[in-house]
Amino acid sequence: MADLTQKDLADRLLMSESLVGAYERAERIPTTAFLVDADGALGAQGVLRSCVELMEEEKYSPKFLNWKRTEADAASISAYECMVVPGLLQTPAYVRALYETRVPMYEPDEIDRHVQARLERQEVLDRRPKAIVSYVVEESVFQRPIGGEAVLKEQLRHVLDSVRARNHLTVQVMPTQRSVHAGLMGSLQLLSTREGRNLGYTAAHGGDTLISKPDEVNRLNDLFGALRAQALTPWESVELIERMAAKL
């Protein structure tokens, strides 16, 4: 395969020649999907595939790397978000705005790497077999103009389009005016694997925590159940997000 041109490889992988060239010149970071596909197309015998794990170690903290690998094949994914739109639903512009305003600041190449990693994770929404994905999100999250009003409006429309296009995805809004609220301790994430393993994940300034003890995960599942009961229904939530988007 040594005489394969950039155009030949691009045609085989159904992508643009310019993108293949950018990867080759190290102007852009290759996606994990590209490395896997290119390994087969080039007959690299696993050399490029072996880079995937190294790249993931660069993109994620050790604890979140374990979470991400489990998330990719999860049977169900649930989360309560009180600060930002859930990562699997973020638009490229919204993701970039998040990382560009981070304190302490990231270097430009670090921002590119993290944006790409976030967007790659979103592939889990459309893989088969489908994962059941459920979110409870604070109303204020959909009002916070991260990246500006245009970015926020695009983000709200993207959430609406995502929910309408996927019957395995639900988003419920937690109204700001709720006087009884089970989620005042902060955001949380939950997932269940097809083998019956249940995990929880929380992140704070003090560090991220991967939770695997059954009693602790059960407590978080109970908490998430209470949050869903206190939030608007999925249909009410769609109507509210539509109204917020219309005002922008």
Biggest sheet features: 6 strands, mixed
Contiguous low-pLDDT stretches (5 residues minimum) are none
**Total helix count?**
10
Give the overall form.
globular
The level of helicity is 40-55%
Cα distance, first to last residue?
A: 52 Å
Count of folded domains: 2
Give an overview in words:
GO terms for molecular function: DNA binding. This is Transcriptional regulator. The protein has a 6-stranded mixed β-sheet, sandwiched between helices. Helix 1 crosses helix 2 and helix 3 runs antiparallel to helix 4 (49-59). Strand 2, helix 8 and strand 3 (169-174) form a beta-alpha-beta unit. The longest helix has 17 residues, at 149-165. The protein is 48% helix and 16% strand. The chain has 248 residues and is α/β, with parallel strands linked by helices. The mean pLDDT is 86. The protein has 10 helices and 6 strands. It folds into 2 domains: 1-59, no CATH class; 61-90 and 130-246, Endonuclease, Chain A (2-Layer Sandwich).
